[in-house]
Hints:
The protein has 750 residues and is α+β, with helices and mostly antiparallel strands. The strands form five sheets. It has an eight-stranded mixed beta sheet, covered by helices on one side. It has a six-stranded mixed beta sheet with strand order 14-20-19-17-15-16. A two-stranded antiparallel sheet has the order 2-3.
Amino acid sequence: MAEAHQAVNFMPSLTSDRGEVELSGPMWQEIYLSGLRSWKRHLLRFWNDFLTGVFPATPLSWLFLFSAIQLAWFLQLDPSLGLMEKIKELLPDWGGQHHRLRGVLAAALFASCLWGALIFTLHVALRLLLSYHGWLLEPHEAMSSTTKTWLVCEGTHIPCTHDTVLWSLSADLFAEGLAKLLRLAWNSLLQPIVLLLQGSLSSQVSDWWEEFVYLRSRNSLMVNSNYYMMDFLYVTPTPLQAARAGNAVHALLLYRRRLNRQEIPPNLLMGMRPLCSAQYEKIFNTTRVPGVQKDYIRHLQDSRHVAVFHRGRFFRVGTHSQNGLLSPRALEQQFQRILDDPSPPCPQRLLWMPMPTLCWSAGATTGESALGNKTLHPRPGQPLDPGLRTPYPVESVVFSNGKLGLSVEHSWADCPISGHMWEFTLATECFQLGYSADGHCKGRPDPTLPQPQRLQWDLPEQVHLSISLALRGAETLSSNVDCHVFPFSHFGKSFIKRCHLSPDSFVQMALQLAHFRDRGQFCLTYESAMTRLFLEGRTETVRSCTREACDFVRAMEDQEKTDPQCLALFRVAVEKHQALLKAAMCGQGVDRHLFALYIVSRFLHKSPEGAGVHSEQWPLSTSQIPVQQTHLFDVHNYPDYVSSGGGFGPAGDHGYGVSYIFMGDDMITFHISSKKSSTKTDSHRHSHRLGQHIEDALLDVASLFQAGQRLKRRRRGPGDEDSGHRRGFISNKTVDSKAPRTSTPADPFQ
């Protein structure tokens, strides 16, 4: 019914007896303001698109070139070699008094053509430079001159699938069958078709990846696809739920405004190479619309409200006034009104099921056009409403104790995109916006604001049973997942870099050692690598369980091997992992190539030779959450204000999901998930046991180096129980956002 309610204010009434159209004053005002916003937005984007199109030149460079040509003309020099005279002849003859004007116009046209030709030449040169990926394979101390000449601009080169490195298969302990499959594909008609289709697509089979892996998947998004991000590790800026929500939403709106104005610079790889920013377009105003056979991504150009879910009720909260964005204090006032609203929830909560027409027929306009979703939880530690399948890619969650979190739907973009937004949100709401001494948002409430609009859902009776069944299944799924979060504070990336190693490769090899001690065997390991060096690139798979990694793990578990021998094997394993990671980032990975071959085989109704490959389980799924804006956090003066990162569910029923984030120089935070129903990870203690193995493995590997000799080695065999060492969790401590503190984290769910 929310759609009809909105139409009352903005649509003409056609109920007059004379059939005349009655246009209300508020409607004309809304039409005027909407048109004004639209023109402002289009003009701003036109200017930004122009600046992007002429990059690395600027409009000032055209003016300089035009002035130089005019000066040369005044000195009776012709830099155009006669072209400006020919241009003058083509211009209309306005009489002798306009002769000088014709000269100026001819100079302006010549300057524009010359300027455009120079820009085109620069674009071609930059694309050629940015298509070169050999710099990733070069050691830092011996960088080539070609790499040093790189300029910062967007690259759009499409990697060719025939560049796939076959040695990445031979490096994987479980890849014997993959090599045979790839050779069969090369000898079939599939390979030329893949080359042709990939050349016509944007890059890295991103369109197919979104369509078949995400939108056509009929599995539950919860646990299987969605991922989460968490609050500061040790502190909570305010204990007031509405205040935290007000500042967080205002910070998100500031980020969206910067995004709309195209003021967010692209991330640079190693400070040189820009990464594709296409995924940022769908952070806001985007919804995943459920369907029977597949879902759909719907993106709107503008939205001026958020959807809020609290105690089984949906509310529509406006985010703008006639003066612009609502202040944090005004937003806090609106959220507090929702918290104080005594109205009961609907008898049946809105859930997704394979009947989207019934579920989304009422209120779809208001719900789907929201810029994002805000969930206010009644008490800390209570999990998200397990039956709610929110249509918003990004859902922020605010607990009653002021803790903040983020739940993200995966189809529209990958973790670094939402992570970039989350870093900005945490830093802005805490350090820039801040809170008053009593914990409220700064500023004053606005009593003239209308009450938040309660959304009512009109659901037919026949769907109630399906809702109950969906809720029961969602509750079973959520209660089956165990999540263990702990900070490792013995050392961090500064120690690893002093050892002249990659922090990511260091942790990946330690994870192989930890998993072997936990399960007594090696397993197929998935690590996500970004491919945003290419236009619209998303991810590629790094198969971290290489033969070199296995040799290192066996040496660590062999009492007869010395530390120097283990260290030598460790360096070889790290070098192999780095080579695989760089190859994946350069478009030379194997898994997306095999994925494209499989899709083409299905289109051609051929035998799906890759079905066995794509049905393989990943007992260990890993990912690093990158910290992209270190300048926003002062970890030296405010060491407690570090994010605890985020995580995801296990990829298999008998596997682990492990994510990690390097916070500052001396801490690594891990998130480990597993399923309680598994016979191999069937208890609450097993993911904690793996956490202990990870800590021991990191210390054991560090002790191989001279700088880490002080760290005691502790060898553990498969199935050893947790030693009872102190485990850290996110705390509920509320502190002044400007006062640095150091504390021992505590479990917020107790």
